[in-house]
Amino acid sequence: MSEINDRLELVIPHGKLVVGQAYCPNGCSLMAPARRIHGHPAIHLRATYQQRSGSIYLDPVCGLHDNISEIEVPPREVVEFACPYCGISLDDPDVTCSECAGSMFALRLPEGAHVEACRRNGCPGHRLRVITGEQLMQRLFDSLGMDSIL
Ligand SMILES: [Zn+2]
Ligand SMILES: [Zn+2]
Fold first, then answer.
1. Are 116 and 126 in contact (CB under 8 A)?
2. Ligand 1 geometric centre to CA of 91 (Å)
3. How many CA atoms lie within 13 A of 120 on its CB side?
4. Could you tell me the residue range of the domain that residue 136 belongs to?
5. pLDDT tier, 148 (very low <50, low <70, confident <90, very high otherwise)
6. Number of domains into which the chain is organized
7. Distance of CA 113 from the midpoint of ligand 2 (Å)
8. Domain for residue 2, yes or no?
9. To pair with 12 at 20 to 30 A between CA atoms, which of 45, 59, 66, 131?
10. Which ligand is nearest to the CA of 46?
11. How many angstroms separate the alpha carbon of residue 57 from the centre of ligand 2?
């Protein structure tokens, strides 16, 4: 039953998925209910560009990029992202952007899923990665009504 490939990568249609909860690798919640973008709580990160760092509020709607940044980053420049609470880096050196081949950063979502996005300002590259443990598979199948095929 666990022979099924344990990595599933999805390309998210623009504007279709809203990140409602996101965490750093240490488990800090990154949502900022007081800062709303498109009516949804934004994702609060610390961004560093050259010598300057400050808060950045990411658009929680995947594919839209109405981010609010406290530091000015020129278009196409690469930013480093970290958790604003514990300081851990969110950069993921193992994945490269399919749009620009740059490196990406990752946010943890509930249920073992990750969302990855390009670190280059203005690049649309992003994807959802679901690590499917057996439990998660079961929940996915339950919610899809597909348990009869197991
Ligand atoms: Zn943290
Ligand atoms: Zn990119």
1. yes
2. 13
3. 14
4. 7-149
5. very low
6. 1
7. 20
8. no
9. 45
10. 1
11. 18
